[in-house]
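Quick one: structure tokens for this chain, please?
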Amino acid sequence: MANILIVDDEQSYRQLLTLVFEGDSHTVRTAMNGRQAIDALTEGPADIIISDVKMPDMDGIEMLRAVRSTQPDLGVVLMTAFASVETAREAFKLGADDFIQKPFDVEELKLIVKKTLEKQELIVENRAFKRAQRDRGSVKNIVGSSSKMDAIFQMIETVAEVQSTVLVTGESGTGKELVARAIHDQSDRAERPFISINCGAFTETLLESELFGYVKGAFTGANSNRKGLFEAADKGTIFLDEIGEMSPAMQVKLLRVLQERRVRPVGAHDEIPIDARVIAATNRDLRAMADEGTFREDLFYRISVIPIDLPPLRERAEDIPDLVAHFVAKFNAQSGRNVTVSPRTLQVLENYAWHGNVRELEHTIERAVALERGEEIQPERLPDHITNYNPERIKAEFDLPENGIDLTAHLDNLERTYVVEALRKVSGNQTKAAELLGMPVRSLRHLLDKHNIRSLSAQMRGGE
């Protein structure tokens, strides 16, 4: 059953179509012209409009234009005794679902209405499916039931309804991009692009080209025009991660874009209007950087209209069991396993400080699921620094002596000790030592040179 609105200035057609469609158990209303039809839609919704084109006061084409401006998905079928190619073309251009010439075969019209209603049903189902997918892929990927996370969820829901610029802050690994995606997915921009860029991963010149685009011939290698990310995110969201790493010159250019809502591609003379919501993120203290003069104060205020500060995992330890269950289920599904976490292991995980936050916990669970051969993940499957972690012991070890310490020298000595110990454990293999220390081999080699111990690696390999 459907709600059908018949619009025709001829009473005979209104009566005929009422009999036809009420006979098929549809609900039918009628109007004499387009203006009456618009009024009828304000009184109650319709699933489909069947309308004549030639009518006094407001004809079918004008009515179609008005309907599409407010109800873009409403089914509309037009009828006319004066069909022309131009009229049909304009009708389809404005979004008519079908077009039939009077006099028409009733069965043909019924078939057109049936197909139009089926199309409307698919549109509704598709929208519901996308909404469900967004729900599953947005906030529900941010796991936690603590009071601090409840506040974050409420903020996401509120912020999604406005267009203001958002600054997401927090330590590395706390889930800043997940929050940005959740805001986008719950906003009216959800069906448009979400584009993410790490501002610290590009040089100043490359970052400008990525964000604003360039024209052919702007520089060596620019063989064609390229759209920038601001333009690609039209009517969507652009996520500027690690914005604190942006150079002063790029800060000036970004500030102008945010103020003018226009970009100029590299090498171009004309500017392009943009409509992209900006969400920025950083693990740095931009307020302090602004006070020091290393980050523009006017840009700081422009991007931090709505600030969201994510708590580190150690400040919401009550969320660890939920996060562990979430990641175990995720990696079980990926590997076809069905392991669980033993109570002893969960206690160890809850006791640890998680300086790498949720990201570190995720990687730890991924490793544990991969290594566990039994049905329960045991503490032995966790890295030593987690199983041996004792907050009271560490606190005692780090108590400052009365006369203080040389912190720089102390940290250098600690760094050298860990590098040497990592090399010792793997018999001088630099690749494996870098893995133990969680760093690229290139960074390890830099430390070897810094502490003048590069030859130690060869000695541990037996002089190779």
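The mean pLDDT is 89.
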